[in-house]
Amino acid sequence: MNIIRTSPPLHPARDLLKDPLKAQAERGMVLNKGNIYISEESPPSVVQAYTRQFRIDFSSFLRCRSVETVPGGRMVLTIAVRTSLDPIQECSVLIWILLSRVLRDLVQEAYIQEENFNSFNLPFYAPLPLEVEQEIHKEGSFSIDCIKLFDVELKSVQEHAKQSTGVFITNMTRAMVQPLLVRHFGGDIIEVLFSNYNKLVEKEVSISKNKLKTLAVSLVRNS
Predict the structure, then answer these.
(1) Helix (H, G, I), strand (E, B), or coil: what is residue 42?
(2) Which of 146, 143, 6, 8 is nearest to 71 (CA)?
(3) What global pTM score does this model have?
(4) For the CA atoms of 191, 19, 87, 99, what is the dihedral angle to 10 degrees?
(5) Is the distance from CB of 214 to CB of 79 less than 8 angstroms?
(6) What would the pLDDT profile of 131-156 be if each residue is shown by its tens digit?
(7) What InterPro entries does the entry give (predicted)?
(8) What is the pLDDT of residue 23?
(9) Domain ranges of the chain
(10) For residues 37 and 46, what is the distance between their CA atoms, to the nearest angstrom?
(11) Which CATH homologous superfamily contains domain 3-221?
(12) Residue 43: which of 34, 29, 28, 31 has the closest Cα?
């Protein structure tokens, strides 16, 4: 192909990122107990595992796309990124924290088993722009032609959708992770899970000033 456009290339529901803690879980090690993503309670080893898995999977993604792209062909990526060195400081992390809280409540209400909850880790990672650049250079199949960081204002998107904050965030989250949740927990909990999630988001989230950092990268296939 001469041109590939992908957005986003690291969408969790598309199986392009693997569970970064799966290997440890298979050995009976629960490194991130009580959480489904990086949180304030997560040990440094969890952050390191997510970073390492991103590098492995993003490199694999680039390598696979290079096979489909002719020399001189172009690929344009848009990637959700962060600008803080601390991954839990980005506004997007809040949606995963709230989802984790809802799942913990479902454990208490006996909808799901605690062991099953503790073995679930979201395969999502918002890298630093520098991490993206480094992996592109390291993998070597593409050269960066243009790279730009921009903000997506959630308030504007919400107003365009004409939805309440709870409905807007819930629909966005559900679109990203429902296939993963169904695969891991089964489909029976989905409606009650997202009903509870919607109520929690309405109570806890204000998106008036929240912006999602997005990186647009134009790549050229090397000869």
Answers:
(1) coil
(2) 143
(3) 0.82
(4) 10
(5) yes
(6) 999 999 999 999 999 999 998 877 67
(7) MeTrfase_7, SAM-dependent_MTases_sf
(8) 57
(9) 3-221
(10) 9
(11) Methyltransferase, alpha-helical capping domain (1.10.1200.270)
(12) 31
